[in-house]
Every structure is written in structure tokens, then in C-alpha cells.
Amino acid sequence: DIVYCLLITFSYSPTSVICISVAPGDTEKDVETLASKVLKMRLWDDEAGGRWKQNVQDINGEVLCVSQFTLLASTKKGSKPDFHGALGGDQAKELYQLFVSKIQQGYAAERVKDGVFQAMMEVALVNDGPIDYIRNVGRAKRIEIRYLQARNFEI
């Protein structure tokens, strides 16, 4: 068995934790649109206290990308979640990696981290806000993303 161990620790730097799930029908263009949106989202106050004035680049923050297919779970039938709405395996990994790559290209690669795709991970963070957005992108409006503003987290 292959065991993945990844520890990323950020110390008190404002961070966007991005949880992303990809569905069948989502495209590279959808992923590029989403990456651009993530970097432009104004989630932080400015120096004068103005609300929602700065994005992660303005504050020199960090970005953590986490693949989370469970965002597309359906609970319409029965008592168990159905994950068939999420794109499987290699195709999902390809789009997820493209997303991370576009975030790194649009910002600063050293300020962008990601988890291990399809690995069981334990993510601990202190939610600073809390600010939690869900954003749908794509033809099927199924790429889901959650923004969390965080400080001091580790995987």
C-alpha cells in the first residue's frame, strides 16, 4: 500500500482554502474561469476597514486547494449520499491539476499549495470570519468551490 503523508503549515498568513469538485461536462474553460475568479474574489477588508475590498493577491495571502468530490453529493434518495454527480478518477484529476496550475500561474506558485488528489486527508484550520462561499461554474453549473478564509491551518 502507498501511504501519503503531507504536512503543510502556514503561520498566521491570511489564506483562501479552496475545496473543489468537478462534474461530468465540466471543461478546461470552466476551470480557467474558476481559477481567475478565485484570485479576484474580494474577501478581505482594506487597511481603512472597508469591507470586501481586497483579494488574496492584494494581501499577499496564501491559497490551499483541496479536491473534495463530496461537494457534489446528492441526498435526494435514501439515507446515504450518492456521489455519481462527481467526475471520476483520471478525468477529475486532470481538471483539478489544471485548476491548481492556473492558480499558480495567475498568482505566485510558492504561495499556492494543494493536497494529494484522492487521498484521505485530515485538514485542520481556524476559520477566520467565518466566510464560506459556494460558487458554481460551467455549463452544467456543477463545478463547486468553497471559499474559506483561514489562519493557521495544516494538512
Q: Top keywords for this entry?
A:
about 25% strand, about 160 residues, about 20% helix, five-stranded mixed β-sheet, alpha/beta, D-tyrosyl-trna(Tyr) Deacylase, Chain: A, 2 helices
Mean pLDDT figure: 78
Helical amount: 10-25%
**Rg calc:** 16 Å
Number of strands: 5
The neighbouring-strand order within the major sheet is: 3-2-1-5-4
Structural class: alpha/beta
Largest sheet: 5 strands, mixed
Query: pLDDT under 50 segments (min length 5)?
Result: 1-8
**Judging from the principal axes of the Cα atoms, what is the shape?**
globular
Counted by DSSP, the helix tally is 2
Remind me, CATH topology?
A: D-tyrosyl-trna(Tyr) Deacylase, Chain: A
Pfam families: Tyr_Deacylase (PF02580)
Organism: Lachnellula hyalina
Family: Belongs to the DTD family.
Catalytic activity: a D-aminoacyl-tRNA + H2O = a tRNA + a D-alpha-amino acid + H(+); glycyl-tRNA(Ala) + H2O = tRNA(Ala) + glycine + H(+)
Please explain how this structure is put together.
The protein contains 2 helices and 5 strands, in the order E-H-E-H-E-E-E. With 155 residues, the protein is α/β, with parallel strands linked by helices. Helix 1 runs parallel beside helix 2. It has a single domain, classed as D-tyrosyl-tRNA(Tyr) deacylase (D-tyrosyl-trna(Tyr) Deacylase, Chain: A), CATH 3.50.80. Helix 1 links the parallel strand 1 and strand 2. The protein is globular and about 50 Å long.
